[in-house]
Structure formats: C-alpha cells, structure tokens
Amino acid sequence: MGDSDVSDRHPPLRAPLGPRDRGPDPRTLRTRAAVAEAATTLFLQRGYQDTGVDEIAALAKVSKRSIYNNYGDKESLFTELVLGFTSTAGEFADRLVTGLAEAADLPQALHELGRRHLRTVARPEVLRLRRLIILEAGRFPALAEEYYRSAPGRVMAALTEAFALLHARGALTAPNPRRAAEHFSYLVLGSTLDSFLFAPEADLPTPTELDRLADDGVTAFLAAYGG
Amino acid sequence: MGDSDVSDRHPPLRAPLGPRDRGPDPRTLRTRAAVAEAATTLFLQRGYQDTGVDEIAALAKVSKRSIYNNYGDKESLFTELVLGFTSTAGEFADRLVTGLAEAADLPQALHELGRRHLRTVARPEVLRLRRLIILEAGRFPALAEEYYRSAPGRVMAALTEAFALLHARGALTAPNPRRAAEHFSYLVLGSTLDSFLFAPEADLPTPTELDRLADDGVTAFLAAYGG
DNA sequence: CCTACCGATCGGTAGG
DNA sequence: CCTACCGATCGGTAGG
C-alpha cells in the first residue's frame, strides 16, 4: 500500500488521506469542526469585521494558531464557511420546485410550495446568513454574487421554467414567466425578508402567521396569473 | 437694535444669533456643510466602521477637531446625518400617495404611482441609504427602526388607508388593505431593492426598464385586486 | 476674551 | 498550545 516517504519534498498541503490510509487525523477534524461552529455562530451574530479571531478561538476552545493552521487566514475561513452554506441552500432550491409543472391541482401545489418556501427561508439561520452576505457584499462581492445565483437565483430559474410550461399548457397566463416567478417570490417572501433586515432582533412571525402570509401571497398570484 | 453686553455671564454655547444679530458664524456653517457632505459620501460608500474620521476630515478639508467641535463624536455625526435623510424620505412618502383614493381613473393613477415610487426608490443615493441603514441595523437599531417606520412604513400606511377607502367604495377588492399595500409595494419594488443589496456596484435598471418593472407589478396587482 | 482651527500625539485594540 | 508581541490603524483629545 505504498506509504509515502515522510521526507517527501512535495506533500499536499492538506492530504485527503494520511499515512497508511488511516484518513485524516481525527484531532484535525475535531478542531476544524469546533472552529467552523464557533466562527459560524459569531459571524452570523456580529458580521465579519466585528468578530475577532481571538473570540473564535476562545469559543471553539482552540488556540488562535490552530485557526490559522486549518483555514489560512480570516478571509479564507469566512469564505469557506459561507460557500458551504451557499451550496446547501442551492440544493434546497433545486428540490423546492420539483414536480410543480406536473401537479394535478395547481393552486394547491402552489400553496404548498409557497408555504414550504417561506417556512424554510424564515428560519433564523437562513435569514441571518442572507443578512450576513448582504452586510459583507462590499468586502466579498464574489461571495454575494455566488449566493444570489445559487439560492434565490436557482429558485427563480426553476419557477421560471415551470411557469413557462404551465403557460404553454394554458394552466397559467404568464407570457413573461420570468416576471411571474419574481412576482411569486416577492408576494410570498417580500415582507418577511425585508422586515428582518431592518430588525434582525425582532420576533419572527409565528408558523401560523407565516402560512397566512404565504397563502395570501399565493392567492394574489393566482388571481393575477391563474389560468 | 439692542446690542447684547459683550461681558454677558451666560452666553449660549452655540448662540443661534451672534452679536449684533448677524446670525451664526458663516465659517461654522461652511465647516458643518463640508463635514456633512464628506461624511455622507463616505458613509454611503463604505459604511460606518470602514469610514475613518480622518478620512472625513481629509475629504471635507477641515481639521478633525472641527468635526468633534461640530458633531460631538462619530456616532452622533452618523445619527444626525441619517436622521436628516430619514425625515426627507418621510416627507416624500407622505406626498406619494396623496389623492390616490380620489383618482378618477384608478388603474392609471396606480400605474403613475408605481412608476413614481420605483423611480424615486431606485435612485443610487436612496438605495445606498437603505443599504447603509441595513448594514448598521446591528449597531444602530433605533435608527433602523426610525427609518423603517418613517420611509417604507409611511408609504405602507398611506397605501393601506387609500386601499381601505377604495375597497369600501368597490373600486378595489381588498378586504385586507394592509396586505394589499404590502403586495403592491413588493410587486413594484421587490426585485430592484433586492438585487441592489447583493450587488451594490452593479448597474441599475435603465429608466425604461424601471417603468416596465413598475408597470408589470401594477398590472399584476390590478389583476389580483382590481374592482 | 471667544471661536475656529491646526499639528501632534494619546491609550487601546485589531489581525496576524 | 500559549503568552507575548509586531506593525498598523482607530476614535478621541492635548497644547498653542
């Protein structure tokens, strides 16, 4: 099983497998996980600038040196964490709209989609991530663009495609399906997303209120675009 | 023309009128105006934290001491400037909806309102102010609340009132006029406000595109709520 | 005497 | 892994 020579002059900076193929050092994994959790908490709470590397180290109960060893520098740590959450959000976006164009009862399917979408987006950690990315869009423009394209953008693209099909079939009247997708999203999510940005500490709507908000948005959408 | 005694033992710290009623020292006014303009530019561009008092002083071509003499400290300077713009925005909000409930041609009046609203809100300085307040909502929660209540909140309140009247008169079907006002706002403004937060450096829609966005939003609103 | 303003520098804290 | 410390920069204030 060809162990690599310890004196190898070109070791990968972070080997995917350690010597004897034992996998990465479990201590490294523990440290990285502790740092990631602590940094996520603090970044989401206070933003990039107001979170100190010392604070992250203290909360994660690791040394500051371990953070730099595992993540390079503060910017890389931030970027790596945010990109991880962004790809999670992108996967959700793909699943959300699946099957819409084939639904037997379109109004019911849209109401369910609206409720599911708003419930997901109105979770504190999702709202805080969105807010964090907006706060740091000046410092990390590429990150903001990647998030926008992967999360809301992917939902918008999937809705656009579904609405185009439904329009062709006469189930909706949406000659501009892209615009219809935007209208659907802002009708359902608009006020919840907006309020949180201005009052991130305020109480979120209750689940009942969220369903009501989503239903009202979908009802207005169906009145405007319904077959 | 009663000159005040120069040896007066209780001079006001900053007299509204100087000796001989000549008015405030014009040098003071010039300095304050220069500081306000420079600070506004920089705060809107980089946010609170990333703007240094030294930078403001350099851009305004005054000494740092003059900033502290005129505005107390950095937080007060920021608050004073933002509150000034907030009250300006509030006055616009009041005028925007005036006369809507009495319009002879409601669809036309709503289309004009939508265009005017979006054109105003989509000005770079308005978008930047909104973004700045969101960025600093963690540090200045009272400021964010005041802005939210004075600007979007006042438009929403005025629209709600107008829609309630129009519903009573049968010109609209809006049994929940508050919700209708939210839907109107997000249909017209949603995508423009949202995109700017994630890409503050990107090009804004052209005036033609803005009118199209507004028209599409108002058309959807009328299809959903129209008499 | 006052107000406005200057050059110089303070203590404290950030990322690394 | 920790303490100590660096070069840089911040908001705020000193004397004149």
Automatic annotation (TrEMBL), chains A, B:
* Alphabetical list of Gene3D superfamilies matching this protein: Tetracycline Repressor, domain 2
Q: According to the lineage, what is the superkingdom?
A: Bacteria
Known DNA-binding region: 52-71
GO BP annotations of the record are: negative regulation of DNA-templated transcription
Q: Tell me what this protein is called.
A: DNA-binding transcriptional regulator, AcrR family
Bias (Basic and acidic residues) occurs at 1-11
Does the keyword section mention Disulfide bond? Answer: no
Source taxonomy? Bacteria, Bacillati, Actinomycetota, Actinomycetes, Kitasatosporales
Q: Which UniProt keywords apply?
A: DNA-binding, Transcription, Transcription regulation
PANTHER family this protein is in?
Answer: HTH-TYPE TRANSCRIPTIONAL DUAL REGULATOR CECR, HTH-TYPE TRANSCRIPTIONAL REGULATOR RUTR
* All copies of domain HTH tetR-type, residue ranges: 29-89
Disordered: annotated span: 1-26
Keyword Transmembrane (UniProt): no
Gene Ontology MF, one = DNA-binding transcription factor activity
